[in-house]
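HUMAN: Would you supply a protein with fold tokens?

ASSISTANT:
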Amino acid sequence: MNIALLLERAAASAPDQIGLVCNERSWRYGDLLDAARGAFELIQESEAEAVAIIDENNEAAVFAMFGAALAGVPYCPLDCALPDEVLTAELERLVPAIVIGDEERATRIAGAQGHMILSREEFSLKAQETVPADDAREYDPGEGVAIEIFQHVTNGSPKAEIFRHAELLEHVSRAPATLASDQPGVTLLAVPPHDGAGILALLCSVQAHRKVILLPAITTERWFALVETQRVSQALVVPPLLARIVEEMEAGMARDLSTLRGIACAGAEIPLEIMRRALELFPSTDFTSAWGRAGPRDTITALAHDSLAGVEAKLAHSEGPMPRIDIRPS
């Protein structure tokens, strides 16, 4: 099965329902499927063998991921915070590809590699304006690689972690409640596009026909404002953002965050003290640490507010790769 089937089903069931919000623009699920099919046409015409993005999380990343899935080529979100020389080495592994993002930077680091380079705005516009050549066109069945995420290495050639379509769909079916929910609601993603937990949360939200809000420029003020105005029920954040959220709330910032049912933290390990303080500040919110020492396939889940001592004990005595921990009230 292809991960794009999640979007096709959402568009068939709820075509007029808002599926994505980014920078005060919104797209219905029917619009998202049209854009994915437009991206597919661009990929097919270019004969690219991969689609890479060097940018913050935005609508282009969503169009690219599902378009690449339909075309049967890997979607490769890169960490735009890395030095140019690292990104150059990673892009060399993907030739020929469509590279989306800051056009000047992408041209500087990969202009001689044979890629097609498009700005975020140009790719998004072309994807939305391109009409599929044939409504009956057959798309890739999804038997190959869906996502490639490069791992940071201090020496040697870049190494990518590969996620196949079937594996991602299995992850969606088994995701913790703070990443996946079949309840109506709104998901806020304040993570970069190369974050594996962010990709999983996006797929889970599409499966549940939820509204997904992307926060490209991650600030606490913008995060608080979106949670309040959009009535966010589930949020995915990076640990530094969670720490700043905790600090501002402890300083007396008055915010209505009553709609938040779950917060997941991705990208790095959460300091235990931050988790303790967050649990106290959000007494009715479930928390998940969607990160493990062995990589994005590891997940630690801490759901019970009255079981923090058990969380501490299991974290303190863990050896080697962090195990999955699922703690619930007794």
Remarks:
- Residues 175-327 form a domain with the Rossmann fold fold (CATH 3.40.50.980).
- Residues 292-297, 310-330 have pLDDT under 50 and may be disordered.
- The chain has two domains: 29-166, 175-327.
